[in-house]
Amino acid sequence: MCEVNMRTEKGGNCHADVTCSDGNSRNYDDWPNCAHQAVDEFNDPGIGPFTVTWTKKDDDCSDGLCAPFLAFAYVGNYHVFDVDALSEEAQTNATSQTLCKVGCSEQTPSNSPSSENICGSTDNDKTGTVHSSRCGVPAVGKNYGPGTLDSKGPTNDAGYAPGSCGVHVVQHQKINPAGDPATDREAHYHLDITVYDNNQEKIGEVLGAEAPAGKAVNVYSKLPFVLLVTAQEEDADPVLFDYADQHWAYADVAHACDFGQYDAGDREGDCGFSC
Length: 275
Known about the structure:
There is one protein chain. The protein has 275 residues and is mainly β. It has one helix and 18 strands. A five-stranded antiparallel sheet has the order 3-2-1-9-8. A hairpin with a 2-residue loop joins strand 1 (2-9) and strand 2 (12-20). It starts with a strand and ends with a strand.
């Protein structure tokens, strides 16, 4: 999740900054316009291109510029967010399930019962000449459940969004663990494997793949290299992954892996990798 902060003082001195949950942030103090009804556009590495438009001024704001409209290229193709309207909704409807609140985790869907609204007003200047607001927005390619908060970054000529891809694996336990692996297919693990691009769109899948111990399952997708997924001898052994020059196991923190325990004969989990 990222957060956009906007501020203007005495009808000018426009400022914005974007801070994302990965710790990256960027300030925007050079506005081409910074004027009533003028559209100022920026390109942020965390959230992609976005625009800010101050829709009210002077008497409608006490003084200066206020009531910003925000639009993001990768969220609804420049779907417009009325910041003041969303701020008011957040104040009057604490159980709103439409948009994700600022600072929510990437695992919290936008229709979670605990979610609130995306935007809020932070005006606290008694002179009435300083107006500020802040809004949460997904990082490029991140999805927060159905609705306008799904960010869809651009795809390349191969038909996928590059950046950080994901793999979901379901490992099915051996039906006959005492069998001879050389002759008994039920003495092998079987894997369901799904590959997702940076937009969290499915770009490759194999289901029910036989996975003899130590022998990689090839997963073909829109990616330029084949993803290799390898089960080992025992239930407690980690699943291994190889993609291009990346090699990791199912408990690798650097690849944000999250695997559960066996339940009713299956265990499943997710990992990320650079693509």
